[in-house]
Amino acid sequence: MTRIGHGFDVHAFTEGRPLVLGGVTVPSERGLAGHSDADVLAHALMDAILGAMRAGDIGQLFPDTDPAYEGADSMVLLSRVMGLAREQGFLLVDADCTVAAQAPKLAPYREQMRQTMAQAMGVDVSQVGVKATTTEHLGFVGREEGIAAWSVVLLDKENGR
Ligand SMILES: Nc1ccn([C@@H]2O[C@H](COP(=O)(O)O)[C@@H](O)[C@H]2O)c(=O)n1
Ligand SMILES: C[C@@]1(CO)OP(=O)(O)OP(=O)(O)OC[C@H]1O
Fold first, then answer.
1. 159 CA to centre of ligand 2 in angstroms
2. What is the DSSP letter of 138?
3. Helix (H) or strand (E) holding 116
4. Is any ligand 1 atom within 6 A of the Cβ of residue 101?
5. Is 156 annotated as a binding residue?
6. CA angle 117, 143, 136 (to 5 degrees)
7. How far is CA 82 from CA 33, 47, 105, 142, in A?
8. Is 2 known as a binding-site position?
9. Which CATH class is domain 2-157?
10. Which enzyme class, named as a word (predicted)?
11. What is the mean pLDDT of each run of 10 residues along the chain (161 residues)?
């Protein structure tokens, strides 16, 4: 049985925080606001996995009211989500992600993001795609107010329903 999952997340830019995307700290004057490290790309990927598992979303699993997740490393959370998936018999077939950011330029960090997220999930780098786009200066992304990310995943479960 194969399940599809989709994830979407947005975080606003803020001063005084590092910009963490796909577990990689990207050189930037500003970072993203959030209870955790605000890794919007990892959050979209986690929600896609949870969606395919029909297991709610990251806000349910890691509430932003819980001090345990203050400043949390999203790669640790991603490992935990994939661990839950494995416990339920799911294997990751494939994942693909898109980050919409007007700036900074993300292409130089794309491969590192793929590798870092693949490692956190315990899968091969070939199973994780990361792409970046601007929004041609349109909307909140285009005004450089924040970054959005989307992810789709396929999970496989033997003899599952
Ligand atoms: N933050 C970003 C956004 C885009 N890129 C790369 O530039 C290419 C062109 O972007 P468009 O929005 O004009 O299509 C895109 O395909 C990415 O490779 C980037 O590195 N960082
Ligand atoms: C990751 C979590 C962890 O508390 O916090 P945030 O960084 O606020 O991220 P968001 O995507 O807004 O919500 C999900 C939360 O689970």
1. 33
2. -
3. helix 110-121
4. yes
5. no
6. 75
7. 25, 11, 29, 32
8. no
9. alpha beta
10. lyase
11. 98 98 98 98 98 98 97 98 97 98 98 98 98 98 98 91 63
Closest ligand relative to 41 C-alpha: 2
CA 25 from chain center: how many Å?
A: 14
Decide whether any atom of ligand 1 lies within 6 Å of the 98 Cβ: no
Please state the length of the chain. 161
**CA–CA distance, 75 with 81 (Å, rounded to integer):** 10
117 closest CA partner among 125, 126, 109, 106? 125
The domain ranges of the chain are 2-157
> Three-class SS of residue 68?
helix
Q: 157 φ, ψ to 5°?
A: -135, 125
User: Dihedral, CA atoms, 89, 83, 46, 61, nearest 10 degrees?
Assistant: 100
What would the pLDDT profile of 131-159 be if each residue is shown by its tens digit? 999 999 999 999 999 999 999 999 999 87
Whether the ipTM is more than 0.85: the answer is yes
